Amino acid sequence: MSTNERYTILKDIIKIYLPEDVAIEAVSEESHFINELNINSAHLVDIVLDVEDAFDIRLENEDMDQMQTVKDALQIIDNKLS
Amino acid sequence: MTFDEILKNLPYTQPFLFVDELLHIDSNGVKGCFTFDSTLEFYKGHFIENPVTPGAILTECCAQIGVVSLGIYLLGMQEVIINDALQIGLSSSAMEFYEVVLPNEKVTVTSEKEYFRFHKLKCRVKMHNQAGKLVCKGVISGMLKSN
User: Fold this and answer.
1) By the CB < 8 Å criterion, does B119 face chain A?
2) Is the Cβ of A23 closer than 8 Å to some Cβ of chain B?
3) What mean pLDDT is predicted for residues A76-82?
4) Chain B touched by A34 (CB under 8 Å)
5) Pick from B44-58, B80-94, B108-122: least confident
6) Which of A57, B86, B116, B120 is deepest in the core (most CB within 10 A)?
7) Model confidence at A70, in pLDDT bands (50, 70, 90)?
8) A81 touches chain B (CB under 8 A)
9) What's the Cα-to-Cα distance from A54 to each of A24, A81, B80, rounded to whole Å?
10) Domain definitions of chain A by residue range
11) Rounded-to-integer distance, Cα B64 and Cα B109, Å
């Protein structure tokens, strides 16, 4: 799976949890989940659980603490899959 | 953790404590009950001269028994020390209501854990009245952590 494919899958997951006033077009690799995309901490957990299912990986508490931006999430997915 | 220890760790008191007793608890779920005393303040206003327990309060009762009590037990299992630093918050609730609850009725709440991960506890909850009829059911999630 290419990095681009992973990014597309991740964006499809994020889309579900975006508040109504944030468009999917606003999401970039640099986006901060909580500060910029207005995703609350409970929905961040939902994103992590969906990511686990989509990529068949398991994240730990440390991963969750590190996952601030979309790029962080991609990095964690890359690390788990390699 | 014993029922008493869980109840002592609940961060509520009168007039906003809606747990009387826990009947069963394990890592997958909890069962507990509460009696809505007719002297509870909100009956004066909901509704005028027609006291009925508000749905918001039924939801709160489901959350205190089904999510917070269970969450305290699960934190205890992880050997997290529960103290004044316990932070809890409701993150979502989706409830459906079937029966009214009148003053002095006793209800039983049962809750099944869907997951408890990264401080988020998501549960399927049900409330039954003394006749065994389903009062309400739904899904409630909360964030719980203790430092």
Assistant:
1) yes
2) no
3) 93
4) no
5) B80-94
6) B120
7) very high
8) no
9) 19, 12, 31
10) 3-81
11) 10
Residues whose CB is less than 8 angstroms from the CB of residue A45 and which lie 6 or more positions away in sequence, other chains included: A64, B117, B118, B119, B120
Q: Do B115 and A49 touch (CB under 8 A)?
A: yes
1.10.3670.10, 1.20.1250.20, 1.10.1200.10, 3.40.50.1580: CATH of A3-81: 1.10.1200.10
Contact B79, B101 (CB under 8 A): no
Q: What mean pLDDT, rounded, does chain B reach?
A: 95
Cβ within 8 Å, pair A40-B91? yes
Determine the pLDDT at residue A55.
96
Predicted complex ipTM: 0.84
Nearest chain B residue to A60 by CA: give it: B118
Judge whether B14 is closer than 8 Å to chain A, CB to CB. Answer: no
* A49/B92 touch (CB, cutoff 8 Å), yes or no: no
Q: How close does chain A come to B143, measured CA to CA in Å?
A: 7
Shortest distance, CA B78 to any CA of chain A (angstroms): 13
So what's the pLDDT on residue A62? Answer: 92
Confidence of residue B7 (pLDDT cuts 50, 70, 90): very high
Q: For chain B, how many structural domains are there in total?
A: 1
Neighbours of A20 (CB within 10 A): 6
Domain of residue B129, residue span: 3-145
Give tens-digit pLDDT for A19-65.
Answer: 999 999 999 999 999 999 999 999 999 999 999 999 999 999 999 99
B7 touching A (Cβ < 8 Å): no
